[in-house]
Amino acid sequence: MATLRVRMLGVLVSLTGLLAATGAQPAAAASLPDSLWFDAQASAPLTVQSGHFADGLGREVVLRGYNVSGETKLEENGGLPFASVADAKKSATALRALGGGNTVRFLLSWAHAEPVRGQVDTAYLAAVTDQMRAFLDAGIRVYPDFHQDLYSRYLFNEGSWYTGDGAPEWAVDAGNYPAESCGICLFWGQNITQNQAVTKGSYDFWHNAYGVQDAFLATAEKTMAYVQQHLTSDEFAGVVGFDPFNEPYAGTYDSGQTSRTWEKNVLWPFYVRFRARMDSAGWQDKPAFVEPNLFWNANISSQKQEGGLLDAGTIGSRYVFNTHFYDQKAISGILMWGKAGDGQYASDFGTVRGRTTALGTAGIVSEFGHPLSGSVSDKAPTVGKAMYQALDSRLPGASWWSNPTGSGPVLSGTQWQWDLYSGRHHELMNGNSDKVLTAGDAWNDEDLSAVALDNSGNPVLRQDARLLDRLYPSATAGSAVAFTYEDRSRDGSTTLTWNPVPSSLPNVAQLVGSGQYGLLVWRSNGSTAPTELHLPASFPAASTTVVSDLGTTAGLPAYTKTTPIAVANEVGGTGSKRLLLTASDTNVVHYALVTSGATAPSASLLSAARTELSAWAAKQIS
């Protein structure tokens, strides 16, 4: 019934859209709620500049958020992330206010966009565009992703242990693939290399057998054109780019071919073709978020394959290096005993930074996470903390204070996943009415959603809010030199502290106490617009303390142009907050320590902490 309602709504919207002139965008909407004087310019389309994302004011932007959502991989709502626009709006508000996100990777389904070969389902496109708009109107940036796993659900029979998503039924029928079987497989991902139906289907796509790649590209272009034409110019500005293909893998390699030559001679030409389709669809000013070979950064040596777009040269501003990272050792339950610790993924995410720099573009980790139920779920609190730590800085906490300039750029990332229907699904697995899935993600026994609905229908977090709703520099007016955040998230009843303030800064340590804190060091560029940090809900304005070369404050005042340290609502009307730091000088190093740990600190303690931090910055930052 949910699918029928969505389809009928989509038809009505589609018919309305057809009355408009072809290619014409709707009129621009009024400014989003809680906008300030600089937000209109800041919300111009993001670009890639000098190895980072930049907004319309030239500020360095960090994208943080979630994948919305694995529901797209299911059939219960017709390949849509939500059953209704109302649910999309509820999800967007919660993602901003509870999860601290400013960005979503928005999943789309090729199977539902093109259920009949050569015929794009405009009702589906209308519905996904409306759901996408719910996030844009909440001030959340979006980058769509044509998602696939195991090539297609239509490769799997009703009684299968596994399922897939992606290609439409007609594409599978064209291939006449063998009966699917993974053999002895403990994890669904083993199908990628062991299930001949999956490997042959993937191989055929990359070799354009039966014209399936041509058909996909044509549908992608029509989808992008539809989205561009049916969002206002202001809404479309919030669409960051497009992820052409989730987790690409050859299926099988040709004789003499390697993973590296496959990336060079097969995958990269596909991205060039997709890039041309973006240009034709009106997305010429937005980058393609291109993923390397799925296994390029696997942390199990037997799975790892050479890759990372090593032969693509300098890809520049029209492409973004886009990768995933999961700790397969931790997920295996065998290859990593115990839990993650300080700096666990510093090297893995450092490799991402290195490839991003070599490619001359911005980078993003568009999927990361860990199971929240099952035999290895006890590792989730530490694995999650270590992954976010590695996004924030390339250093372990133990060495951050002594070497802050080694911190590296703050990485963008979107966690897998944000699914309102977690644990409440009604999915007929592979269409089998005797296999109705309700638990977890309702997909191959996964359970990774950071959110669910409580018994009253309200979104609630399934992970520690201190882990998910984080302090981070969402927009830096200048260039970020170093950043760290000690979230004090919990593993059961244990508070995890991996980056305590060193004893060499006793007044700073006293000020922070056992509270959360973050420290940003940046170099100014003359902008009169402020540097912005997302303020978690655990940092209420009245009890947030900031110690900076710009001043000190215990309790944040409301923003004005002449207030160097201030608080304001984030745009979109969700009630989430941002810290605004204004320094309009040029090429000057600034710092700001932000903590929720101080309780009515004295003026003398604030002054002493500022003196310590100023001396530390002068010594450590050249």
UniProtKB/TrEMBL annotation:
* Pfam families referenced in this protein's UniProt entry, alphabetically: Cellulase
**Keyword Transmembrane belongs to the record:** no
TM segment ranges: none
Q: Which UniProt keywords apply?
A: Glycosidase, Hydrolase, Signal
Span of the signal peptide: 1-29
Q: Which stretches make up the Glycoside hydrolase family domain?
A: 88-403
The record, for PANTHER family, names: ERGOSTERYL-BETA-GLUCOSIDASE (PTHR31308:SF5), PTHR31308
Family of the protein in this entry: Belongs to the glycosyl hydrolase 5 (cellulase A) family.
- Name of the protein described by the UniProt record: Cellulase family glycosylhydrolase
State the organism of origin: Streptomyces yaanensis
The organism's taxonomy opens as: Bacteria, Bacillati, Actinomycetota, Actinomycetes, Kitasatosporales
